[in-house]
Amino acid sequence: MGSSSVAFVPQGSIAQIITYMVDKNFDLHPEVDKYLLRFIGKPQAGWVNINKEVLTRGDFLYKLCTAKAPLKAITYIPGETKELLFVQLALAFELSYEKLHEEYALATPYVDGFIVPETYYIPVGISEKHLIHFLLAHAKAYHKAVFEKIFGEFNEAKWQKFIIIASIIQKEAANVEEMPLVSSVIYNRLKKDMKLQMDGTLNYGEYSHTKVTPQRIREDTSSYNTYMHKGLPQNPICSVSKEAIFAAIFPKTTNYLYFVKNKSGTHNFSQNYETHLENIRNGF
C-alpha cells in the first residue's frame, strides 16, 4: 500500500475516491470495492492513518472510513529557503533531511521559490516521497491559479522570471508597501544594463541567514552574486508571497536606481548615486 503510514483521501463520491486511490497505485478493485464501501461507510476526506503493516483490502477500506491521522502544523514563511523548511520537516516528522532533498530533486527542476509559503497541516507517518509530492502538487495548483488569474494562461518561462524577481523583492523589501518600489529598482537597473548589486541575492539556499560580507561578494562566483554578474540569478532565492509576485508583475513606475536602509528599518530610495551616498551618510 506504499511506504507512508498515511494516505490522502480527496473529496468526492465513492467512485471518484476509488479511482483516485487506484491512480495512486493502491491495490483496489474499482467495481467491487465501491460496493463494499457502501456497506462500510464513505471514506473520510483528508489524511487517514493506515499504519505500515500489511492490510487486507477489507481492513484498508475500513481504515479509509474510520482512521483519521494526527496532524502537525508546519509554517513556511515568505523569504525562507527550502533548505530550512526541510530542516523543520525532518525534525518534526523524524524524516531524513537528505532524502527530502533527493525526492525534491527527482520530482522537480525548480531549485527554490516553488513551494508555497503558508501553514501546512501534515500527517504524522508520512514518508519523504509522499510529503514532497504533496507540497509540489499544492504548489503547482497554486502558481497555475495565480498566473491564470492575471494572464489568462500559465506560461512557464514567464512564470519563472517573475518568481526570480519576486524572490529578490521578498529578501530586499522591508514591508509589503516597499515591494513595488524595490521591484521598480530591479527593472530600472536591468533596463540600464546595471548590475543589481543586492545583498539579498546571496542569501540563497544554506546561506539564508548568513551575513553578506565583502569576502563573500569577492569569492561567491555563482549566478546569485549580483555584484559580480549582470542580470538576474538563474533561480529564485527563496519562497515568495503573493504580494511579492504581484510586485514583480506590477512594479511601481519610478526612476529609482538605489535604496538603502534607514534608521526606522525601512529604505530610502533615490534616482542618482549622489543622493544615494547622502542617504547612506544619514541612514545610521
Automatic annotation (TrEMBL):
Domain of life: Bacteria
Protein keywords: Cell inner membrane, Cell membrane, Cell wall biogenesis/degradation, Lyase, Membrane, Transmembrane, Transmembrane helix
Family indicated by similarity: Belongs to the transglycosylase MltG family.
Protein name (record): Endolytic murein transglycosylase
Site note Important for catalytic activity, residues: E172
Cross-referenced Pfam families: YceG
Reaction catalyzed: a peptidoglycan chain = a peptidoglycan chain with N-acetyl-1,6-anhydromuramyl-[peptide] at the reducing end + a peptidoglycan chain with N-acetylglucosamine at the non-reducing end
Biological function: Functions as a peptidoglycan terminase that cleaves nascent peptidoglycan strands endolytically to terminate their elongation.
GO molecular function, a single term: lytic endotransglycosylase activity
Lineage, broadest ranks: Bacteria, Pseudomonadati, Campylobacterota, Epsilonproteobacteria, Campylobacterales
Keyword Transport recorded: no
GO terms under cellular component: plasma membrane
Enzyme class (EC, first level): lyase
Gene3D superfamilies found in the cross-reference section: Classic Zinc Finger
InterPro entries: MLTG-like
EC numbers: 4.2.2.29
Gene from which this protein is expressed: mltG
GO biological process, one term: cell wall organization
